Amino acid sequence: MAEETKKTEKEPGKVKAFLKKKGIEITWRRYLIDAMGAMASGLFASLLVGTIIGTLGTQLGIQVLIDIGGYAKSVAGPAMAVAIAYALKAPNLVLFSMLAVGAASNSLGGAGGPLAVLIIAIVATEFGKLVSKETKIDILVTPIVTIGVGVALAIAIAPWIGSAASSVGKIIMWATDQQPFVMGILVSVIVGIALTLPISSAAICAALALTGLAGGAAVAGCCAQMVGFAVMSFKENKWGGLVSQGIGTSMLQMGNIVKNPRIWIPPILTSAITGPIATCVFQMKMNGEAIASGMGTCGLVGQIGVYTGWVNDIAAGTKDAITGFDWAGLVLICFILPAVLTWVFGLILRKIGWIKENDLKLDV
After folding, report:
1. Full DSSP string of 15-64
2. What is the three-class DSSP state of 277?
3. Do 158 and 116 touch, CB atoms closer than 8 A?
4. How far apart are CA 325 and CA 108, in angstroms?
5. What is the pLDDT of residues 35-79, one digit of tens each?
6. Which of 72, 80, 220, 340 is deepest in the core (most CB within 10 A)?
7. CA-to-CA distance for 5 and 356, rounded, in angstroms?
8. Distance from first CA to last CA of the chain, Å, rounded?
């Protein structure tokens, strides 16, 4: 009986030692901060940079830029998965195998693609690390296990994750049925939050065909998050952070949000203010592509979408001309108010100690 007890006590120790040897550290910090932060960088270096280049090409009529942007956007899934595996200190064969895992997870995940990549890439990476260099045919075993586990998991759960992410759309559609003031608050806040979360606000808006006043409120919410975080964190991140968040993505802050959720309060409060101003004061509409409603200031796609809508309305005879009031509303809602309001709210939270030094620090 005593021997069995000793054997039982030794087993956990052996498992712990094996996991340490393999570099597997099962902690919330590793998965929700390190991995998520890396995933946001991977998303920025593919989808978001591709969007910026592609948008520039479209506006300037330069086909090669459109093509470059398209290629960059097409590898968003692999880029995120490799970034996650890199953050988890994956061996080379595991790291390279994540290309297939990321492609499958993002493709099958739909609107929840980034979230699917995050979950599945973590699991596949850790399984790959478990078998890495454990056999004489490592060059076969490690990629087969990593890709097999990752793609199988993508087939099994990525569509479900996509459906769960799309359910946010039901809340948004309910919000669009409210009075303009209430709708402006709800849509702006919800879509803005979706933009910063590891799900695709653009895909949700596209699937819902979110245009008109609701689309304008969505643009306001996204801008509040992106411009808001960019300005509020300027103290920590300087110009690199201003650009990467302001015309890239506020998702870069998700790791910091997990550590201190209070840093999310200023941009959310800002979106609750700019949303109804957009709908009730300036009546800002998104009558361009619905996908632009969920893009915010990423590559200025949201603003270009609003402008395209004005041009479309003039062509359709429902709008006489683009006025100074239109331009004032666009600039105020998308840039000035998000910057000023979020900075003020952030300053207040810093004063009361809810946001501390380096809480908003990014590795940019």
Report:
1. HHHHHHHTT----HIIIIIIHHHHHHHHHIIIIIHHHHHHHHHHHHT-HH
2. helix
3. yes
4. 43
5. 888 888 888 888 888 888 888 898 889 999 999 999 999 999 999
6. 220
7. 48
8. 57
CA-to-CA distance for 135 and 296, rounded, in angstroms?
A: 49
Give the span between the Cα atoms of 165 and 198, in whole angstroms.
10
Rounded Cα distance, 305 and 307, in Å: 5
Q: Where are the domains of the chain?
A: 24-164, 178-351
Higher-confidence residue: 150 or 60? 150
Could you give the dihedral angle defined by the CA atoms of residues 195, 199, 201 and 205, in that order, rounded to the nearest 10 degrees? -160
Q: And the tokens for 293?
A: 């409603």
- Is residue 226 within 8 Å of residue 297, measured between CB atoms? yes
Q: How far apart are CA 76 and CA 50, in angstroms?
A: 9
CB 220 within 8 A of CB 191: no
Measured CA angle at 117 (ends 148, 216), to 5 deg: 155
- Distance CA(242)–CA(137), nearest Å, equals 47
Q: How crowded is the C-beta side of 75, counted as CA atoms within 13 Å?
A: 14
CA–CA separation, 230 and 296 (whole Å) = 13
Distance CA 161, CA 165 (A): 6
